[in-house]
Amino acid sequence: MIALDTNVLARFYCEDPNDPEAERQRPIARAILLDSPAVFIPLTVVLEFEWVLRGFYGFGANETADALDHLLGMAHVTVERWEAVKDAVGLHRQRLDFADALHLSCSANCERFYSFDDRKFVRRARRLNLAPEVTLAR
Q1: Its pTM surpasses 0.90
Q2: Domain-located, residue 88
Q3: Which pLDDT score, from 0 to 100, does residue 16 have?
Q4: Distance CA 30, CA 27 (A)
Q5: Strand partners, 114
Q6: 51 with 65: CB under 8 angstroms?
Q7: 37 domain-assigned
Q8: Tens place of pLDDT for every residue, the chain, 138 residues?
Q9: Roughly how many angstroms between the first and final C-alpha of the chain, as a whole number?
Q10: Is 110 within 8 Å of 134 (Cβ atoms)?
Q11: Torsion of CA 10, 42, 77, 30, to 10 degrees
């Protein structure tokens, strides 16, 4: 089994025709991801990958969720905590920030999730009736 870094996933999923380095690396990334018999994606890479898709490539929530769903659906790819990632992708499609969705999905066995300042997260989690309950720490 091999593990992949965020940049390999980004080269696989993103067209970057104005970058000669990306043009050179994309076929390599495709070969690594498609031809390797077993691939591991760490949870931290998933989180960073979403950030790169959104922050650097300008992907919207649905485009990001589609890429992550595709990755989760590849039979030879093992995504760490895949159940939590799958749940987070679903919440992201409902317009919850992906990082917040992943934090919450990874905390599913807890009774409460505290934040000091993220009122937007608290409001959206309550509106979606998510568990564990997201609460401002006071």
Answers
A1: yes
A2: yes
A3: 87
A4: 5
A5: 135
A6: no
A7: yes
A8: 999 999 999 999 998 888 899 999 999 999 999 999 999 999 999 999 999 999 999 999 999 999 999 999 999 999 999 999 999 999 999 999 999 999 999 999 999 999 998 999 999 999 999 999 999 999
A9: 45
A10: no
A11: 20
- 117 by Cβ neighbours in 10 Å (0-12 / 13-18 / 19+) ranks as exposed
Residue 126 in any domain: the answer is no
Q: What pLDDT is stored for residue 17 in this prediction?
A: 83
Name the residue type at position 88. A
Asked whether residue 9 is domain-assigned, the answer is yes
Number of domains making up the chain: 1
Residue 104's domain comprises 2-109
**Token representation of residue 52:** 């790169």
Cα separation, 113 vs 134, whole angstroms: 5
> How many CB atoms within 10 Å of residue 7?
15
Q: How far apart are CA 68 and CA 34, in angstroms?
A: 15
Q: Which two tokens stand for residue 124?
A: 């959206």
